[in-house]
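Researcher: Please predict.
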Amino acid sequence: MMQKVKKMPHIDKEACAGCSICLVNCPMECISITDPAFHGDIRTIAQVDASTCIGCGICAKSCPIQAIEMVERKVAKPMKTKTDMRKIAYRGVQQGFKVAMRILPWRMPELIQGVDAVKRLPALVKRRGFKKVLIVTDENLMRLHLLDDLLKEMENLRLDYVIYREVAANPTDFNVEEGLNLYLVCQCDCMIAFGGGAPMDCAKAIGACVARPRKRVSQLQGLLKVLRPIPTIFAVPTTSGTGSETTMAAVITENATHHKASINDLCLIPKYAVLDPKLTVGLPPRTTATTGMDALCHAVEAYTNHVYNSDLENDMARQAVKLIYENLYKVYTDGSNLSGRQNMQLAAFYAGRAFTRGCVGYVHAIGHTLGGLYGVPHGLAMSIILPHVMRTFGPAVYERLAELSDVCGMTDSNASKQEKAEAFIRWIEEMKVKMEIPEFATMIQEDDVDQMVEWVDKEANPVYPVPVIWSKAEIKSFIMSIR
């Protein structure tokens, strides 16, 4: 079994006075008091470390205002998996990919960053000799006027453009077809992908279809199925999460079946990435939280996979985790912090580059099914699933998570690898609590689980070099445990 049910304390955040009586009485020292949410805040609340809590109930009995109730909860623990010939074959395939990774022409976008960097973009586009730009974005960003500075500068320079603004939160093949038609009819010669991961993925897929006009989106999904140059893409992220401005992936949902899958090809990596922190200042706290956790997921999965990584990917994953540890909660509580916003953009960029070669894993494979079936925003799905997967991997990830814990200075240097790994996972869980991210994926319907398992297995195996390979039965067991 990979999970058990036990009674655990549930703390009413509205009622808790932060008096610390529960902390003093806890025999396992698994209760702590949160930091103030912002400068000058005097309200703090108690929180429980589920990994060390034994469910004794002393905290609930000692609470003077009855803000703690003992409730039944599922607690993840390492899954006992079985080795079979299929898994052995998958590892063989991954060793083949490892060799191939060494000879592929990896590159990164040219980086343009700093306050008002987006205003410098039109001049760059003109210098490159482009005449007409397709801007791929969404209606919400247009409504928020985030493109105003860019469009004004393009008009000043008489740089012609047309806008495709219909991109959905989870872009579909229908969006790609509409954007492609606009690109061709208006005789565009490059694209600006402006927004979060959705507009960027849509622009990449449009580019793939320009390069491969006789193929549908579904025929391009998979690994290295484009293999031709696509139109130049200038990527302008307005969130700090997807890292799509530096990745070779374009995740597209099939409109008819809701199946979400990725086009993966080195030619999809944008030529330029523009990191302007002012574009992220207006992000709501919840979007800041989930996109930041998405970046963390990219870095953690790439680092714990590590089979395909070079020193560059390992270093970028470590840098990304440290930047997120130091800045995410800071910008969650103070969205106007420009230095924190810039650091989070860099974190997303580094994490995106890390997983472009290092790959993601089961967090993403399962998260994609939540986006396809239920429309769950990508970052939210990643945020919910990440700590559950890491706990379920167990000892297989202790060493790599311990290294990430050390990068952030989370524990004493003399702590064991398991203790350091536990501290790292607890930090993720504590961040979820502080940023009000749900603990479980309660939207999952039992009738959908078998379909989810098929999609997860198809996406992850055999290419993703995950620390522990799961069979279909093990994938199903995990999905059922996080409902």
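Model: The chain has 18 helices and 13 strands.
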